[in-house]
Each structure stands twice: as structure tokens, then as C-alpha cells.
Amino acid sequence: MSNDRTERLVNLVLCLLSSRRFQTASKIARTVPGYEHDPEDKRAHEAFQRKFERDKAELRRIGVPLQSGVDPYFDTEPGYRIARSDFELPQIEFTDAEAAAVAAAARLWHQPELQSGTAQALRKLRAAGIDVESHAAAFPVKALPGTEAALSPLLEAIASRRAVAFDYLGARDETAQRRRLQPWGCAAWRGRWYVAGYDLDRAAQRVFRLTRIPGKVRLVGPEDAYTIPEGVDVLAFASEAEAHQTPSRAKVLVRPRAAWGVRRRADQIGPRRSDGDEVCFTYTDTPFTASWLASFGADVLVLEPPELVKETIACLQNLAEDRR
């Protein structure tokens, strides 16, 4: 949604909340910025009516309780209003467990483009007397590894119902393939982000793991280009997609008395060498696993398979460049 339309919708909501009387379309056109036009100009007035109808539909779509009716004492023209009792949220009250869950979720949104929204939400909760951070101390949450640059544009596309285009490197692909998708929703499953939607080229529902999107996600086409089906469960799609992943076998060399997180995941340790212990475990997501192994630095040396070695080296190189 464009900034101009967002600002216009906010102004429209404020106008309809400001009075208990029904506000006619002609009065709204005179008072709400973005609707200015000459009512005597037929084409300009028709353009206003189309814009106003789209905006009313958008408000109702996002759940704003827009009422319509006629005020018999002042106007004969139909008008609109928003009742504050229907619009305003009730007092928010969380149990300790619920507050801890909110704080834990907020700590997962570590991407720079999403941090401002998270911080604003937490400030509003604190203003309501709910100190969510104090409840989170016993619930440490490790930040999701890897870069999720695709998440922000996908969330924007879902909100505006726009299709997206991106390159995708599937588990069996040697090179990234171009995909066009009408996204329905995003979900995190076991530390990995997924997007589900309708694949325009394959004419079927598909699920994509965000760590397999190597480049940028581009929004293409007009807004409101599709409708999200009723009852879509993106989390179920993500869990099913992961269940069908073929596991790979990793072999790494771990320094003595180091990288205990890798050791705990191992299903085989040994043989022991003078420079460390060989550790083996299974995995399904190469970028995710490489980022995790790179977080142990020099305490872990990846030996097999070659694609995991290559991906881990790339992660370490990116980390070194970021620290320069």
C-alpha cells in the first residue's frame, strides 16, 4: 500500500471517529486530505467516488467497523461513521506466561527493518502497565540465524495482496530458478521461515523456505490482485514441507572441550584426534546449518559434505567482512 493511500485511510478513520453523526461523502471530500476535487467536474467527482469506494472496502477488509446510515435531522444523503465502542480495543491483560510469550516472540524479530515495529508494540504494552521484558528472563530465545531479507517484502506483499518474483534454490536445483508467487502467509517452523502461496507458473500451492532465496524478492503487479483462501494454515504447510526433506550427513572436527552445542547434537563422536574430535550428525537445511556452525568460529571445522563446507566458509567470510 502506498504512503499516500495509508495516510488517506488514517485521516478517513480519524474523521469518522470524530463525530457521532453520520458523515456524508460530500463532507468527507471537503475535510479529508486526499479526496480534494471539484464536485462540478464530472470526471473528477467520479474518480473521487471510485477512490472512496475502494477505501471503504479496504477499511472493512482489515476489520474497521464502518457503519452506514442517514441522519434524518441534518441530512438526507447517506453517511458513514465509526462507533468508538466498536473500534477501540478492550483493556489488555496478560498472565505471566502470556507476557513471557509476547516478549519471546518480540526477541525473534531481530531484522533491522522489523525492529521499529516490535519496539513500538512493546512500548504500547508497557504504557498499559505490562512489563513483558521482566517476564522473559526465564525464557531465553536464540535469534534466528542467517539473513531473512526476504521476510519484509513478503509481509508487505501479503498485506497488499501483490504477487512476488524471486530466485529460488531448491534442494535438488544446481542453479536458482525464477518463481512467481501469490503469497498467502509466512510462518516460522523450528527456527526456519517459510512462505506459502499460489505458484503462478506451476498453477498449484507451494511452500518455500526463505533461506533458499539467494536474492531480492520483488513485488510485481497491482494491489488486491488475488484473494487468500479461507482457512489457510501456513504453519501446517511449513511443517509438512520440512517432513519431506531428505536429510544429509555432516562430519565436523570439534576442538577439545569446546563447541558443546555441536557435541550435544551428535549421534556419533570419534575417532578422537590430537587436534579435536570428529563429530557426525544429520541435517536438512544447508544454509541454516552452515550459519549455526559458523557461529562457533574456530572451534569447529566442517569436513563433509562439500556443499556444507562451501556454505560455512561463505558465512565466515561474510562475518569477517561485517567486522571490518
Integer average pLDDT: 78
Radius of gyration based on Cα positions: 26 Å
Question: Could you give a short account of the major beta sheet?
Answer: 5 strands, antiparallel
Residues in helix, %: 40-55%
- Order of the strands making up the biggest sheet: 7-6-5-4-8
Cα(first) to Cα(last) distance is 37 Å
What is the helix/strand order? HEHHEEHHHHHEEEEEHEHEEHEH
Number of helices: 12
Cα shape: elongated
Strand content: 15-25%
- How many beta-strand segments? 12
Low-pLDDT ranges: 134-147
Task: Describe, in plain words, how this protein is organized in 3D.
A hairpin with a 2-residue loop joins strand 10 (268-273) and strand 11. With 324 residues, the chain is of the alpha+beta class. The chain is elongated. Helix 11 (286-294) packs across helix 12 (306-322). The strands form 3 sheets. The chain has a 5-stranded antiparallel β-sheet with strand order 7-6-5-4-8. The chain has a 4-stranded antiparallel β-sheet with strand order 10-11-9-12. Mean pLDDT is 78; it is low at 134-147. The chain has helices spanning 3-17, 25-31, 42-61, 84-87, 96-108, 112-127, 132-135, 151-160, 234-243, 260-265, 286-294, 306-322, and strands at 23-24, 66-69, 79-82, 163-168, 177-189, 192-199, 204-209, 218-220, 248-254, 268-273, 276-283, 300-304. It starts with a helix and ends with a helix. The longest helix is centred in the N-terminal third of the chain and has 20 residues, at 42-61.
